[in-house]
Amino acid sequence: MALTGIQIFKLLPKTNCGKCGIPTCLAFAMNLAAGKAELSACPFVTEEAKAQLAEASAPPIHPVTIGTGATAFKVGGETVMFRHEKKFENPTAIAVLITDSMSDAEVTNRVDNFNKYTYERVGLKLRANAVAIKSISGDPSKFGTLVEKVAKATDGALILMSDNPDVLATGLKICSSRKPLIYAATKANAETVAKLAKENSCPLVVKGSSLEEIAELTGILNKTGVNDIVIDSGSRTVKQALQDQIIIRGSALQKKFRLLGFPTITFPCEMTNNPMKEALIASMFIAKYAGIIVLSDLQGEVLFPLVVERLNIFTDPQRPLATTPGIYEIGNPNENSPLLITTNFSLTYFIVSGEIETSKVPSYLLVMDTEGLSVMTAWAAGKFVADLIATFIKKSGIEGKIKHHKLIIPGYSASESGGLEEELKGWEIMVGPREGSHIPAYLRNLKA
């Protein structure tokens, strides 16, 4: 049973050092009890206390890692019902379904789509995460051949799907080193499939006919040492599946019911034959509250809006997306190329850099750390002002790349031009456009 905040406080060092990011040990203990802090944030907690606090400090929804290497992903680990309370931790994974009843051409097409659809937005690469390989035939040999083909064709994470332990065992012999997600342990095969999961150190899906049955199964598996569990509620109607997601999440977070404290997997691909409706259902599960969604196929018009939705929902609402500060060379600039500066708010950076590219004028763009704030907001907050800008320029190393001393500042920070000329002796401060769309014309006129 989880400890209360006061019980946790009694086990803490009570130094009130604030090194955990919270002013007092009591406040830290309350956050631990609410699942809003990690025990590792306290540098002085003893090993004995760590052991006693393990249950209280663990996320209400157990985090599960699927796959290996650069394409591995984590689901679960959530601590809140609503994003505005804190943030959602691990983005919903998107998988594409491939079965051993498909033709070779169809398998190749789906794998190719999985590999090729990658989008870049605000400096991040957005793509699907896994390939779900399902046995329809029940033939271990046929399933093994398909697993081998898919594993060679992509580095994505894998989900092995069958209700036959022998089929799953065949697939695991081929790809167990990739740590696939095993689907699924049911009331009929739980013992055998759990053994496969333990022997291969792979995560496991539990599927039941009801949430009560699922809770019973997760309890049995926990006692055997299987803890990396993903839940399939078994519902294949939109209404019931959504209700199940909310009940599972609420039971784990609000009622601290550990037997349902696991991430979930949903199957929009089995809820409709209409690709657009499938995308709509998937978008709902990204928001409420699937750890993994399995789609019938990946098409650009379906995948792109889903990965953008996922990006928006799983960003921290209290922290804007930020670009790495530094010198960005756009269009192979030389020592005589224009020099512009902006803030590291990702949207600002991508607008400004995009407009510079459009101008076809090779330029240097300095991106200054303003804690992810836009130009106007950073200026108003005192984070994009003359003395700080001057210090950044002097430390940036840009003077080793250019012969001139001309700096173009955003139009919205024009009031800092005088201060910059005082701070940067010998520099000419030029006020650029207020709007990014005017940058191309400004740079072309400057060049002329």
Task: Write up this protein.
The chain has 448 residues and is α/β, with parallel strands linked by helices. Helices cover 40% and strands 17% of the residues. The chain has 16 helices and 17 strands. The chain has an eight-stranded parallel beta sheet with strand order 10-9-8-7-6-3-12-11, covered by helices on one side. Strands 13-15-14 form a three-stranded mixed beta sheet, with helices on both faces. Strands 1-2 form a two-stranded antiparallel sheet. The longest helix is centred in the middle third of the chain and has 16 residues, at 238-253. The chain starts with a helix and ends with a helix.
Supply database-style keywords.
448 residues, alpha/beta, 3-methyladenine DNA Glycosylase II, Chain A, domain 3, TIM Barrel, Rossmann fold, 3 domains, eight-stranded parallel beta sheet, three-stranded mixed beta sheet
